[in-house]
Amino acid sequence: MATMHDVARLAQVSVSTVSYVLTGTRPISQATRNKVLAAMAELDYQPNAMARGLASRRSRILGLLMPMDERGLGATETAFVTGAAAAASSAGYHLVLSPVGGGDLEDLRRLASQRMLDGVVLMEVQLADERVTVLQETGVPLVLIGRTADTSTLSYVDIDFDQTVREAVAHLVGLGHRRIVYVNHSAATLASGYGPALRTRDAFVAAMTGHGLDPVMIAAEDSAAGGRAALAAAFAQAPELTAVLAMNETAIFGILGELTGRGLSVPGDVSVVSMVTSPQVAELATPALTAMTSPGSALGRIAIEALVRHLDGPAAERHPDGSAVERHQQLLPCALEVRGSTAPPRSRRPVRADQ
Amino acid sequence: MATMHDVARLAQVSVSTVSYVLTGTRPISQATRNKVLAAMAELDYQPNAMARGLASRRSRILGLLMPMDERGLGATETAFVTGAAAAASSAGYHLVLSPVGGGDLEDLRRLASQRMLDGVVLMEVQLADERVTVLQETGVPLVLIGRTADTSTLSYVDIDFDQTVREAVAHLVGLGHRRIVYVNHSAATLASGYGPALRTRDAFVAAMTGHGLDPVMIAAEDSAAGGRAALAAAFAQAPELTAVLAMNETAIFGILGELTGRGLSVPGDVSVVSMVTSPQVAELATPALTAMTSPGSALGRIAIEALVRHLDGPAAERHPDGSAVERHQQLLPCALEVRGSTAPPRSRRPVRADQ
DNA sequence: CCGCTTAGTCGAAACGCTTCGACACCGCTG
DNA sequence: CAGCGGTGTCGAAGCGTTTCGACTAAGCGG
């Protein structure tokens, strides 16, 4: 491994000059620059990231902390990651993903305190999230995807669940549906304070009552079986339902399966809208699902851009004691994409008894 | 941020002593150790990863290079990642995931040359994979998931596709199926030299002819539509088929949809086996799919363990010119898990014309 | 009681880079 | 022609660790 010394010697300049060529911190004449560049090329020189980081006190590495649970990353999360990676790379940063499990809060603190990460994006934030507290304590610049309950001191980017639900409901109501059931995440997830689940619940109630309709919500486990059970529960609570709005991307296949099992057709008998879903997943179903497409890659890009702006910003105070560090707080709506799973309700739908 | 100097001063010892307490490189008396530990606790000291890395020439960071395409990480890949992360963490390493897109070979070289990664695991290896070459050139310790065509100088862990296909076919043949169609990845994927697709193709031909049966393979695009088209093609080529073996996790939902669309029931009319699939995905379908479950987390764990063994090994030469660095080469089979999508074929299946 | 190992500690030299202060040289202005 | 601001370059002092050689004080066999 060639070092800057080697390059400097070969180019017959001082080490600092080589450094200036690399970083552009000070003006260097074209002639010198060329000599140095030539030497670097000849030696196949690559700067040592550690040394650079130590001396400059910035690693140019951004961390994306993603909880990795067993059910994997959907296309939504993936879009998010790729958007973030692209944004980071074009800002001259590396993005590393760190799969942080649930339990290791101490691990998180260590990771953040070791000064290896210039900044951090935290995904899947809960309304009350200890990880946020821990990260804030370490003083590492932080942007959230999702929001905690109190967002006053935080930067975040999140989906505009309110508007998303409102649009979805409007779409169904516009088609003529009156009896719409919302299949949310599980009761346990709701109880744990998972923001999207809670916010969509409230938004659904608001949207439905706004249309003068009765909001029926079912909590479903994140599995196909959960979806089936949810649909059964839905028919029990609202036998005359004509439309299902589902937040639970995993349960939706169970919902569809159960619908078919009951001899009901989609969208003939029941319309289905999937929320916060990627086109890829929506296309998996038969018929392809009308869905609220999440702004995945935009979300990632914006989060990183906010972080970078903070890092590269002029007077970016790291530990401002009360001083006004600018916060970036932004909501992005999902876009309605109509596919084959929604249609006007049958005008005189034959009432089927719940089996 | 407290430094070692601060700790040393507070504990009234030298800096090197603090370092020895931390690393255990040299014996330290219990009394001194306690003083130092107390000082560290009091100052909330966290070693600076950069400085440590610079001085010791090892970052204790392992990279998991994963191509992130638009269709996201399945549960299989996720299991893989979590397995790897757990193994890394218990070996005292951090695991970072780097989403490397397709094009940036130069980027890859830079990443690997910057001495920020002690070792690298590369996922989704193609039979002819330039990334492998690039990484080998940088001299960074490397373990592959998957294999290139020539594996002589490489360490890898991979799925035993041969055995997996053999078992899947045996399961179907054991049930009485004679006419089995294999739905592989797309023709383009095959042409690009994607190992799993090629190896399973060959294994399928071998397994079927071994049973005295005629192997029919269809290439399907990675989408629901691709699955539908594939099924249509399958019926065109083998109208009397009673079983489908699918490698293409994405296409399988299209296959199921098309089957239903044709009025065929699973497993009554046609049995379906999904290969290299996670239980989570298998459960999404109705009925739940009989599948060959991939050894995801074991794969990740083993890859990392092999890498760590190489790094922590006694005389681990980084650039051995011809010397025998031990290679780790291992194949893991997928496990057959029978669910609801396979059954004996109808003895006298009513022949349906292709629509 | 003498040299020899061994446990325990220290000081200083790296590690490979950034960055600060200094300085030389240039062409200008007044 | 003194003085000045700008440009281009250098040397050296860090950045926060690890690690090496050296030193001291015991402990011990002969």
UniProtKB/TrEMBL annotation, chains A, B:
Pfam families: LacI, Peripla_BP_3. The keyword Zinc does not apply. It comes from the Bacteria. PROSITE patterns: HTH_LACI_1, HTH_LACI_2. GO terms for molecular function: DNA-binding transcription factor activity; transcription cis-regulatory region binding. CDD domains: HTH_LacI. The keyword DNA repair does not apply. Keywords: DNA-binding, Transcription, Transcription regulation. Residues 2-56 form the HTH lacI-type domain. Transmembrane segments: none annotated. This is LacI family transcriptional regulator. It comes from Micromonospora taraxaci.
